[in-house]
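Subject: Sanity check before I submit

Could someone independently write out the structure tokens for this chain? I want to compare against mine line by line before I put it in a report. The sequence has 595 residues.
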Amino acid sequence: MTTTGIILIRRDGAGAGPALTIAKDNPYLAQALTPAQLAQVPAAGLSVGYSGQGFGPNVRQINDELIRVQTGVQGNFGGSWKWDASYLFGQNTSHVSIFNDFNNTNFRNALDAVRVNGQIVCRSGAAGCVPINILGTPNVSSSAASYILGTATGSGKTVLHDVAANLQGEPFSTWAGPVSVGGGVEYRRESVRLVSDPLSQSGAWLTTAGLALPTVSQNIVEGYAETIVPLARDTWFARKIDFNGAARFTNYSTSGSVVTWKAGLTWEVVDGLLFRTTRSRDIRAPNLIELYTPQTPSLPLPTDPRPGVARPTNAAGFFTGGNPNLKPEKSITQTIGATYQPSFFNKVHFSVDYYNIRISDAITSTSTQGVVNNCFIGGVYSGNSFCSLISFADNNNVSGQMTGVQGVTANVAEFKTTGLDLQASYRQPLAEVGLPGVVNLNLLATHVLTFKSSTDVSTLFPNGIDRAGQTGAAFGGPAGLPKWLLNLTLDYEVGALGFNGNVRYVSPSYQNNGLFGPDQAGYNPALATSITDNHIHAAAYLDIGLRYKLPTSKNIVVYFNIDNLFDRDPPLPATGSAYYDLLGRTFKGGIRFAL
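---
Independent answer below. Compare away.
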């Protein structure tokens, strides 16, 4: 499979990196300014932010090749006992090329022009360097473009071997019915290898194709047991009550052993009305990229937000990359919910579930400057888990110079969130009203009540910041979640032809819940926590699709979809958020088939 996309870039400045400097004796600067204006340029030169769009966007092309082979056997021991065993081999190879990419060093060489013997040349005298002028619309020669632009390339290969065996049966019954039990074992071996061009490995492209990683692997061994125990059947207080439970032991060759479990209860009061609750302990083990990405020096060195404290000067202790000492993330999840399908109108189904999730030892990864910003929240040392990644001279976090920052993947965060998941569905065969076809209507909604992170606890916000209702991506701070996300789908199918429409809705939100706009309590223009406008408007998108089952086979479907039919722009200033459509109207078509 091949996909091609456009990357809109910023070359330097504009909040995305150090500003570009144009020397005062640059002849292109003299051409762009009047003598009076040129006289006001500092001796060190003119610092400018530059988007780089005059040279066109990067174009990323990805080619994916997937191989999957699976086989298995199954049988029974008589009665209710069944068994199965399987083997899976999977291999994914991905090749990426990023065209029209800036070579950072060559770009700066070409930008630093000087006049020598009446000719404008590159000050560096680097071989092949052709000077460029970015003041105004760039008009560069093909030789200049070839010098500053190129193609970053990389590839990755992941391989999976998976062997599993399972057993299930009903060994005995209680007063309420047969007890179901199951168990199994599984062995997996995962490996990954990454290759990239030398300039990507050194960070010399503006948009790199990633770092190189020699083949690394891990072995996973698992064993599990689960059961469903009926507790009541057809009594005066319940149509049915069941207990369900499971436990799993997993050993990772890279990050150790963990135990996870789940316990739940379902209570069907009458036909169509069911209450349910589940409590579980879950984990997410670090992947091979998080563990083994090579650690590399981090430049430029981070800025220290403490007034009067010198910026670090020795780069030896400042690096980014993976962390082979990572441990699995852990979470406790509690859900309580109900489903209802009225007997007098069984075409309708409703469900609502409350969730409470707490994640500890969450794995995060950020730059060395990001570590510093998350430790010194609002410029004040918070003492949170990010601060453990910073070392100070004489262990003095008040006035000691930073001597090292680990911008690596680390178990340093904790997240807590609560909310509601809601669903309503309706199915209507139109033959019942004398019309052809079937209509399906489905509504999915998530309402986030709270979302907090340990990284937000500081002297300024001792109780942290509730990021529920935040969808902005600018001005720093952890990502948030919208208060409401809704998806409403209408599907109509008649014979081999089907049509569907889908409405996606994101509720109004804030840019950053750690900042305050003029209409919010806490707004003070003299404080760094205040901004001119903290609001982000609601957004809604309409997607439509058409499909047709070929009459020659029920397994072949031709489809065509249009996403964001009305080409709605994302609300400003939320253009960097994952919750909004950033591409505009898009068209998709293809063929789906099953073998």
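---
OP: Matches mine. For the report I'm noting this point. Residues 8-17 have pLDDT under 50 and may be disordered.
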